[in-house]
Amino acid sequence: MKNEKGQVMTETVGSPAGAAGEPEAGAREGIRVERVYTTEGVHPYDEVKWERRDVVMTNWRDGSVNFEQRGVEFPDFWSLNAVNIVTSKYFRGAVGTDERESSLRQLIDRVVKTYVASGVENGYFATDADAEIFEHELTYMLLHQVFSFNSPVWFNVGTSSRQQVSACFILSVDDTMESILDWYKEEGLIFKGGSGAGLNLSRIRSSKELLSSGGTASGPVSFMRGADASAGTIKSGGATRRAAKMVVLDVDHPDVEEFIETKSREEHKIRALRDAGFDMDLGGADSNSVQYQNANNSVRVSDEFMRSVESDSDFGLRSRTDGEVISTVKGRELFRKMAKAAWECADPGIQYDDTINDWHTSPETGRITASNPCSEYMHLDNSSCNLASLNLMKFLRDDLTFDAELFSKAVEFVITAMDISICFADFPTESIGVTTRKFRQLGIGYANLGALLMATGHAYDSDGGRALAGAITSLMTGTAYKRSAELAGVVGPYEGYARNAEGHQRVMRKHAAANDLVRTYHHNDKTVHKLATEVWQQGLEIGGRNGWRNAQASVLAPTGTIGLMMDCDTTGVEPDLALVKFKKLVGGGSMQIVNQTVPRALQALGYQEEQIEAIVEYIAEHGHVIDAPGLRPEHYEVFDCAMGERSIAPMGHVRMMAAVQPFISGAISKTVNMPESATVEEVEELYFEGWKLGLKALAIYRDNCKVGQPLSAGKGDKGESEKAVEKQIEYRPVRKRLPKKRPSQTVSFTVGGAEGYLHAGSYPDDGLGEIFVKLGKQGSTLAGVMDAFSMSISVGLQYGIPLEFYVSKFQNLRFEPAGMTDDPDIRMASSVLDYLFRRLALDYLPYEKRAQLGIFTVDEREAQVNNAEPAPASDNVDLDTMRSTVDYAKAEEKSESKEEVRAGSSTELLELQLGKAADAPLCMTCGTKMRPSGSCYLCEGCGSTSGCS
Description:
By secondary structure, this protein is α/β, with parallel strands linked by helices. GO terms for molecular function: cobalamin binding; cobalt ion binding; nucleotide binding; ribonucleoside-diphosphate reductase activity, thioredoxin disulfide as acceptor.
């Protein structure tokens, strides 16, 4: 069977499977695989041009080298950033040894060949030829950035390490000290392996209940302290990122109010300590004393509770030991406390328990009580999920139509590989391994949705945009479950299927029914939706015969590091961050570019080439589309982004989540950003609408709600915290320190008979960074003053004050000693400072700037004389010249300040454009300011994330 492109589609042959998870000898055939991307007789590696590159990654703040590997091999179409991240994050072996990987071929082969060998061993393929084709297809897709497995696959598969492939884990803890201590240990092991974990603490009895010995219980919040301290000391993956964790508590737990206010109370403490002079910035010297900061907190709410909020009625808090109501609260008051705490510090998020369990495929085995740290994986306790994400822009044709058939075939390949990985995977604990092998939870997802919508002329917050997103998501999950049903006919359904068959089938019907409710608007979403409908019908039929191989198929993860690996413009389900981005250049340096999706969007909207050029040029200068020449106002919304002049309204994000949630097995990793002016009532509205719209989880972040953020030092009003308060934001320059080793020069000089030395140190990439002046006897007043003066100038240079500003201030300053010098370029000096700064100008400023200041070398003056040009008087500048020089210095100071505060990431670039600080942490690896990625943060500089995928 062929698709509309004439490509041969994958088929599955074999008889229906029994309940057992392992294939019976001779009972079933494997799948037959046909080529989609590759050509018979041509290896994917032979179809691309390879080149060698040097990877040198430095710390953005101090210029120190974080990582270096030269001569690595990549395809020529891979970006510098993708090459840097894959080389530094995913290549295995000690740097500088023969065992170190040095080519993308080695990395892909290490992973793909492991998958294929396991597939052959476990009976997935009908013939060796099918296995070879499968290998080539996966290789092509990874090579061309069509999809990527999650980071633990690249870290571990095919190495001597444990073959941990899962990024997301859910643990469990019971009301015993042994179980609590096991929780600490298991979390640590998961963090060490490069992943994240979440759990629900609601089984632990509250601080309002008695122990069997007669004493009072500590309550779950007290045990959170120990786990938080442990997470703060373990770097996830050993070196690349901090631990990621989620802590959940049920809304009917008697300690829920303490849990809700845990992090907001710490935020008040941070403010008090900061005001007392302590360094409470993120990573500051005194910030380690703050508790509960290493976890995302979420309250698990029930429909009963939400109805009590709706009706303003009482809600009962129940004992953990016998389930009896031990106290009552007003549902609306408790809901207000949740919203107020989230308004103050972004925690807790909210998870909708009854909605989550209504879509549960394995209800007979147990309820879903928790999620992974980013809230996209939700299934049984003591289980795990491995993730993979497709790059949606790879399926956009040149005519701006979405290739639904190709996308469906790609999903089949990826979901097959993901299921194979469970056959050979290792797990951090035996209980997690047992559950995962029994239920085989997978998490296929996508990245670049925001870019795709913009490129096709859809506003993110529009009916058309939501229809296309919903149709694509439906097709993805429908195809994944159809392939899962086909695999069940080959290698058997998941072991837990027989017990949960009725529940699983019910959820499949719910997905198919939700697909029928999608309203289409344009050619793209109609085509995708039509194929999705066919796929769901086929999947239900095949699953009815065979069962399904996987209890879960899809999630929408943050796609942080792997999004950069695939050169994606946007992550997960997110819109674009801004219209102008930061881009690293080969050979060093960076530049500001307009997103490449903008011209495609303008093309989709019908603009001509000349109009597109003018609009793009306007965006490059202004960073937004407002009043762009020739752009119709009704098209502005297409270019709305997460941040900037026209940012998407918070409810727009929630509506997009609601459009895709019915077609996701798990949930969506996303934080809804709110402006600083948002109110507690608006947070309540988002949380309440999330429940009404059928979301499984929701988290918000209000700008500047946290004190511990770089560049933000706003102080809020100490009045009613329910109301938004205006904050004064102080913009502080960032000090760029010199590296330990730096170029320097020493100049001896004589001014009016006084001898001295000028030592000048510079940055490796050029630019003066420090001076030291030795003048006078050691210990004398003059020597001490000059030392202090040198330190002051050096610190100023490192904070970005331009050298020419200092030169304009200190040249021609008159005091003794003054007179003749021994420098042929500066024969007379009106003071030592006059000499020193004119000498520094000659050594470190370009000719154009020195010409404005009237400072030239002797050769330059001779050249001017020979050309009959009047030479500026370097020794005696008249008043008019002095005024013009100072005016120029002021203008240059203004423009150079812009240059000196350089952007190291898209977030920092956006800060410069908006004139305000963004609430994002600095990367602990390279110092770059991170950007939001789902409910986590991502570093564009080195690929580190604060999440678990």
